[in-house]
Specification:
Oligomer: single chain
Low-confidence stretches: none
Mean pLDDT: 89
Number of strands: 0
Length: about 100
Amino acid sequence: MSHAGTHAMGIAEGTKNDLGRRLARIRGQVGGIARMVEDERYCPDILQQFAAVHSALRAAEKELLLNHLERCATHAIEEGGDDAARVRAEIADLFMRFAGK
């Protein structure tokens, strides 16, 4: 479900730049995994790289979630009304979706 425009404050410039760097690094890691598979490298070595990519993605997710909480969600809650109720429910859904990953 898209929430385009819903209480969106945008991604902070520093966060956007950092996410861009992180995602570029992750693209490189995934490319490295593909080469390892093609070269038939030792499975545990490939799995180690998968774990590194998962960890890098989780760190990027956390950064974007913090941006959302600090900017979009805080703004909506401060404004009150229907958007505040909607964003509180959205935050609960996000925590349930990402908890324990």
